[in-house]
Design brief:
- It is a single chain.
- This protein is of the alpha/beta class.
- The protein folds into two domains: 2-109 and 221-286, 3-Layer(bba) Sandwich (FAD/NAD(P)-binding domain); 126-216, 3-Layer(bba) Sandwich (FAD/NAD(P)-binding domain).
- The protein is built from six helices and 17 strands.
- The protein has helices spanning 11-22, 55-68, 130-133, 149-158, 222-230, 265-286; strands at residues 2-7, 27-31, 72-75, 78-83, 88-92, 96-104, 126-127, 141-145, 164-168, 182-185, 189-193, 200-203, 208-210, 213-216, 234-235, 238-239, 252-254.
- The strands form four sheets. Strands 1, 2, 3, 4, 5, 6 and 17 form a seven-stranded mixed β-sheet that branches.
- It is globular and about 65 Å long.
- 45% of the residues are buried.
- Bound molecules: flavin-adenine dinucleotide (FAD).
- Flavin-adenine dinucleotide binds at residues 7-13, 30-33, 35-37, 39-40, 43, 45-46, 55, 77-78, 105-107, 128-129, 132, 222, 256-258, 263-266, 268.
């Protein structure tokens, strides 16, 4: 049993842990991988970095920092979360974890689509981060591949910048309320077009769509699934959070990319700090 369970040991989770650890709380961080930083080849827009730093290196430094302060770290994937009346219980593929407070910092769910040549065209028309890359598609025709809240988020980043935004659901039904200026095409996809640079996509019915960019936004923010399982309230598809990033379930917080805000390290670290401090306050006030 820990005081604080943090799901995700990326920038948001580690940042939250630093505050909780320094206030003397027992902290358990559970993560399944290195999250978004693994894909960020170089970070150069974060405070204090004199030279660009590989995302994977920034991730490793953060983990070491939390460990040095006494954080317990477990590699596991959480699949369920609930409050049993006394503690939060997180069930993972490898174990079960209990804590008096829980911070979800699972990042955005970005899954690769098994379409041929998708990896090859990454950085050449295929992107996994609208806020990082939308600027390069000013006035151009782009599509978002996905059907849920994450795809909606990526569309929202693109609609005011790109010339046109199409949602390609690849046979799935949309599960979020997409704005009218996003064209929805539900036909299953067959392949991407373009030799060295994406030029479009072809559907199973052989029809083609011209594209300058394709933003992959498959799956859903897993923290939102966990928040739903734990009984947190949602408004318009977003989990309701107070100023301390606490959900409507007392003691359950969310921070970082998973809150659906600006997908940047600086923001994740800031939200983690606020959630960490709020969790300390919550535990002090509810300690019996
Ligand atoms: C290609 C790319 C380039 C980027 N470039 C920049 C940049 O230049 N500058 C910048 O500031 N930001 C950049 N970003 C964004 C930045 O990486 C993220 O904003 C930041 O990493 C978010 O931190 P986080 O802690 O919220 O989530 P993440 O870093 O994604 O960490 C999430 C953590 O949650 C864990 N997790 C998820 N689900 C579960 C589960 N079910 N059970 C257990 N653990 C789970 C993961 O394993 C991981 O440890 C980029 C992102 C990408 C993809």
């Amino acid at each position: 049993m820990s005081d604080v369970l943090i799901i995700g040991y990326g920038p948001a989770g580690v940042s939250a842990s630093l505050y909780a650890l320094r206030s003397g709380l027992e902290v358990l961080l559970v993560g399944k991988d290195s999250g978004a930083l693994e894909k960020a080849h170089m970070i150069e827009n974060y405070y204090g970095l004199e030279k660009p730093l590989a995302g994977s290196e920034l991730f490793a430094v953060g983990k070491r920092q939390a460990e040095a302060l006494g954080a317990k770290m477990v590699d596991d994937e959480i699949t369920d979360l609930f409050f049993d009346g006394n503690f939060f219980v997180a069930k993972g593929l490898a174990g079960e974890y209990r804590a008096r407070a829980c911070i979800m910092a699972t990042g955005s769910a970005r899954k690769k689509q098994p379409l041929p040549r998708m990896a090859e065209l990454e950085g050449h028309g295929v992107s996994y981060c609208a806020i990082c890359d939308a600027f390069f598609y000013r006035g151009k025709d782009v599509a978002v591949l996905g059907a849920g809240e994450y795809a909606l988020h990526e569309c929202s980043e693109l609609v005011n910048v790109a010339g046109s935004v199409t949602l390609l659901t690849n046979g799935a039904e949309p599960t979020a309320a997409f704005p009218e200026n996003v064209k929805i095409d539900k036909r299953p996809l067959k392949a991407l077009l373009g030799e060295t640079q994406l030029t479009g996509a072809v559907f199973m019915d052989e029809a083609e769509v011209k594209l300058d960019g394709l933003f992959v936004a498959l799956g859903s923010a897993s923290a939102m699934d966990l928040a739903r399982k734990a009984g947190a309230a949602f408004d318009n598809g977003s989990v309701v959070l107070d100023k301390g990033f606490m959900t409507t379930v007392p003691g359950l917080f969310a921070a970082g990319d998973c809150t659906g805000g600006t997908l940047q390290v600086a923001v994740a670290v800031g939200e983690g700090a606020i959630a960490g401090l709020a969790a300390i306050k919550y535990l002090r006030e509810t300690r019996t």
